[in-house]
Design a protein that fits this description.
The protein is α/β, with parallel strands linked by helices. It has helices spanning 15-33, 47-53, 61-65, 83-97, 162-179, 195-207, 220-229, 241-254, 295-308, 311-327, 341-352; strands at residues 2-11, 36-42, 70-75, 102-108, 126-132, 136-145, 153-159, 183-187, 215-219, 236-239, 262-266, 274-278. It is 41% helix and 22% strand. The protein has a 10-stranded mixed sheet, sandwiched between helices. Helix 10 (311-327) packs across helix 11. It starts with a strand and ends with a helix.
Length: 353
């Protein structure tokens, strides 16, 4: 029997609550399958750890995580810890140091899920965002000059390398080709006259190798408008770190809410572990109340299974979530139900069996 070792970082706020339910689901699937199992090792890193130690994770945290097959992350962020510290010193550090350059976020309206768009139906919203995840606007380069003076100047640099830009665009082209779908590139070349002009150039260059793929290019503001007015025009989408971050939250809003929003941080070459997470944040206002929605964490577990080579179980999880949405079973309050976090996870486990 194959055993996968998974590092679990429950994190802050509702993170431990929702991650517990995803672990229940993964354990149940391993029982049902019978050919593989999981070993979960939990690490108490995050904002509470920072408040005790002055660091979000130990100095050797990356070395500790390196041998694992994958990482499950609950949520990061808490009042009293600046967001740029909590984000950059754990989540972004893992993404960067493990070269998880592909951020894969599905934006899919499941049957029964709430949607604020008039007349939108399942099938109208079914896209995958491929977001560059290791450089770009989140590279952390810049300078803070003459602080606390009238001459104060802040410079935030974006870093777009040919290697980084080309590999994420090629990954998107390969997915579009393999799935026989259209590919849309989103940039802002009319205003960002270096980084986004470069991005557009690389998109065209790589595209010459994929003449069979139908492509489109949109400015980010136009893309946001079309996601609301005509979401069915998008299938595979590739974009930069910042634009992908913003647009996938919009995608979550039109496809059921943040409680159904999952994300994968992939190192496609598998040289380092990939990381899977719900993208809803730590929600400290409801932490500890047992009412948080674990389905985004469960969906991220489905992404983990697909990455490990079990697409049939990933699809099974999504079918179960869709059944719950259609039949209004085991849903938490954000989806119109009255179930607790644990009851929602239990319903997933029950329907899997």
């Amino acid at each position: 029997m194959k055993q996968y070792t998974i590092a679990v970082i429950p994190g802050d706020g509702i993170g431990p609550e929702v991650i517990n339910e995803s672990l229940k689901v993964l354990n149940r699937i391993s029982q049902l399958d019978g050919t593989f199992s999981f070993r979960f090792d939990t690490y108490p890193w995050g904002c509470e750890y920072y408040q005790k130690t002055g660091e979000m994770m130990p100095a050797n945290g990356i070395d500790i995580l390196r041998p694992y097959d994958a990482i499950l992350l609950g949520a990061i962020g808490a009042p009293g810890v600046p967001d740029h510290i909590s984000l950059r010193d754990l989540l972004l550090k893992i993404r960067h140091d493990f070269d998880e350059y592909v951020n894969l976020r599905p934006v899919k309206l499941l049957s029964g899920a709430p949607c604020p768009l008039k007349n939108a139906k399942p099938g109208d919203i079914d896209m995958v965002f491929i977001r560059e995840n290791s450089e770009g606007e989140y590279s952390g380069q810049g300078a803070w000059l003459y602080p606390d003076s009238p001459q104060e100047v802040v410079i935030q640099d974006s870093v777009f390398s040919r290697k980084g830009t080309e590999r994420i665009i090629r990954y998107a082209y390969e997915m579009a080709r393999s799935q026989h779908k259209t590919l849309t590139s989103i940039s802002k070349g009319n205003a960002l006259n270096y980084s986004m002009v470069f991005w557009d150039q690389i998109f065209k260059e790589v595209g010459k190798e994929y003449p069979d793929v139908e492509t489109h290019s949109l400015l980010v503001d136009a893309a946001a408008m079309f996601m609301v007015r005509n979401p069915s025009r998008f299938q595979i989408v590739v974009t930069s770190n910042l634009f992908g971050d913003i647009l996938t939250d919009l995608g979550a809003a039109i496809s059921g809410g943040m409680g159904l929003a999952a994300g994968a941080n992939l190192n496609p070459e598998r040289k380092y572990p990939s990381m899977f997470e719900p993208i809803h944040g730590s929600a400290p206002d409801i932490a500890g109340k047992g009412i948080s929605n674990p389905l985004a964490a469960v969906w991220s577990a489905a992404q983990l299974l697909e990455f490990l080579g079990y697409p049939q179980w990933s699809a099974r999880i999504l079918n179960v979530i869709e059944t719950m949405l259609v039949e209004k079973k085991g849903l938490t309050a954000d989806l119109g139900g009255s179930a607790s976090t644990v009851e929602c996870g239990d319903m997933v486990v029950s329907l899997l069996g």
